[in-house]
Amino acid sequence: MLEFFKAGGLLMWPLFICSGIAIAIIAERFWSLQSKRISPPELITHIWQWLKSNQVDNNRIGALQRNSPLGQILAAGLANRDSSREITKESIEDVGRHVTLSLEQNLNTLGTIAAITPLLGLLGTVIGMIKVFAVITTEGVGNPETLAGGISEALITTAMGLVVAIPSLIFYRYFRGKVNLLVVDMEEKAMKLVEILHGEREFDTDKGMQ
C-alpha cells in the first residue's frame, strides 16, 4: 500500500487528506442527522399536553430549545404564542432558517471534495504524462522503467481521485436529500403548532391532531 502511495507522487497527499476529511464528515453527518435526534416524534405530543394543561412556562420552553432542532423551532412558536399569527409564524421561520443551516453543516465541504478530487487526479495524470514525454525527449523510448513510472503515476492519481470523489458525491446527494426531508417534516409540525396556538386546529392528547 505504501509503495502504491509513493508511486502516485506528491498529489497523493492532498487526495489522502481529502479522503480523511470526507470520511470524517460522512461519519459525523450519519450520527447528527438521525431522525430521532432532529425531529423526535414524541415532542409534539408533549407540547399538546402542556397546552391543554396550561403548563407552558419559560422553563419548559428553555428545555424544549435544548431538546433538538425541532424543539428550537417549536420553542420559538411557544415563546410567541400570545402574538399574532403572522408574528408567531415569522419567529418560527426565522429559527427554522438557522436550524436548516446547522443541518447542512459540512455538506458544502463534502461537495467540494467530490468536485475537486477528480481534478486533482487529472492534474496528477497530466504531471505523469509530462514526465513520460520528458523522458522520451531526453532518453528516447529505450528506458521502459522510467516510462512505466510516469505512466503509473498518471494512472494511480486518476484512480485515487475517482475513489475519493465517487463515494463523496453519493453521500453528499444522500445527505442533501435527507436534510430536505427533515426540513419538510419540521415545517409540517411547526405549522400544525401555529394552527393549534391560534385556534385553527383542535388537538387531543389521546388521539393526536384533529
What does this structure look like?
- There is one protein chain.
- The chain is built from nine helices and two strands.
- With 210 residues, it is an all-alpha fold.
- It has one domain (28-197).
- A hairpin with a 3-residue loop joins β1 (203-204) and β2 (208-209).
- α2 (12-32) packs antiparallel against α8.
- Residues 204-210 have low confidence and may be disordered.
| DSSP helix fraction | over 70%
Q: Rough shape?
A: rod-shaped
What is the number of independent domains? 1
> Beta-strand percentage?
under 5%
Note the quaternary state here: single chain
Poorly predicted segments: 204-210
CA-to-CA gap between the ends?
Answer: 62 Å
Q: Look at the structure and give the mean pLDDT.
A: 85
- Determine Rg (CA atoms, Å): 27 Å
Number of helices: 9
Secondary-structure element order, as H and E?
A: HHHHHHHHHEE
Q: State the secondary-structure class.
A: mainly alpha
> Biggest β-sheet: count, sense, barrel?
2 strands, antiparallel
Q: What is the count of β-strands?
A: 2
Lateral arrangement of strands in the main beta sheet:
1-2
